[in-house]
Amino acid sequence: MARVWRNFDWTLLGITLVMLVIGVVMVRSATINTPGLEDMVRRQITFCLVGLVILFVAASVDYTLVATAPTLTYLILVGLLALVEIVGMTQGGAQRWVEIGLAVQPSELAKILVVIILARFLADREQAIRRISTYLGAVLLLALPLVLIYLQPDLGTTLSIAFAGGVMLLIAGLPLIYAALTGVAAAAVAPLAWLSMQDYMRNRILLFLNPAGNPDDFYNVNQALISIGNGGILGQGLFHGSQSQLHFLRVRHTDFIFSVIAEELGFVGAVIVLVLFILLLLRLLRIADLARDSFGRLLVIGMTSIIFFQAAVNIGMNLNLLPVTGKPLPFISYGGSSLLIFMLSIGLAESVAMRYRKLEF
Asked: Which of 142, 222, 253, 301 can bridge 334 by disulfide, Cβ–Cβ 3.0-4.6 Å?
């Protein structure tokens, strides 16, 4: 057992720890002197500590064991997502939580479980990846969870899992003609998807395309841009951001924490965060490259894709380069379910890294 720990990626762990520390400090800055949010920092620290335990436990387990019963895992996941539709709790206008002793958000769990199940499906069909049956099977496997998550409604998580699934299919060797056909099909159903969206989803997209059309709704994005502009090169100083500390910027501890970083730590602080994400993604891609089997490689690729997608979307909406989606910045924004799932992802990636070569006796 001690031998496998020699390959533990301590650099990846170090990058993750730095991001967690930055997250705790910035959550503190974003919630200081804010009635009702006084307990956020303590809770974030607790999430980080629990996440580290999850990371090391996941790393200690052979990653091949997590897909021992993919059919049963899939049925449990679909059951939890369906349960949300029946008895789910509503918060912030979305029905995404179920109460099973504690509040659980199945859509967050779906991020990792769908990746595990799809990775196992594709790895088992490595020699038949070019068959239309493999492609259709993968699409059907993805479709049911995605529809259930979309109906909560949770467009951001739906897109992140769909993106990861698409990347995994391409890395597995999906013929490009299938990808092209998928694109054509997506374009064909786009009008139907637009009509099926909740009003707030359409409003966010329209607001992005035409901010002047509704200045009141554009308020928070505008405050985020002001915050980033106020930061300059070195920032206004930790705990001294004008837009964040005077509470002009809303949901600053979750969706718009990147704007707080840019305002208080400046361009330099924002670049440091971006560099940390790049380094994290590169370490994960290195592990995927080292993986000894297709399952391990696809598992890490899927998790890397979700982290990349969510970070890019969050930063993009802070810069008004993408519509607001309500997705937190991985490892940095306040949040329990999301942070724990990302820590589990890092732990599973470490498990792949630790076992990239078979033990010799």
From this structure: 253
Q: Is residue 360 included in any domain, yes or no?
A: no
What is the chain's mean pLDDT, rounded?
A: 89
The distance from CA 357 to its chain's CA centroid, rounded to whole angstroms, is: 29
Query: Before 153, cis peptide (omega within 30)?
Result: yes
- Do 98 and 106 form a contact (C-beta atoms < 8 A)? yes
Statement: the pTM of the whole predicted model exceeds 0.90: yes
Number of compact structural domains in the chain: 1
Taking the C-alpha atoms of residue 31 and residue 37, their distance in angstroms, rounded to an integer, is 6
Give the range of the structural domain holding residue 237, as residue numbers without chain letter. 4-354
Does residue 359 sit within a domain?
Answer: no
Q: What is d(CA 1, CA 5) in angstroms, rounded to the nearest whole number? A: 7
Q: How large a percentage of the chain has pLDDT more than 70?
A: 93
Q: Indicate the Cα dihedral angle 65, 66, 67, 70, nearest 10°.
A: 130
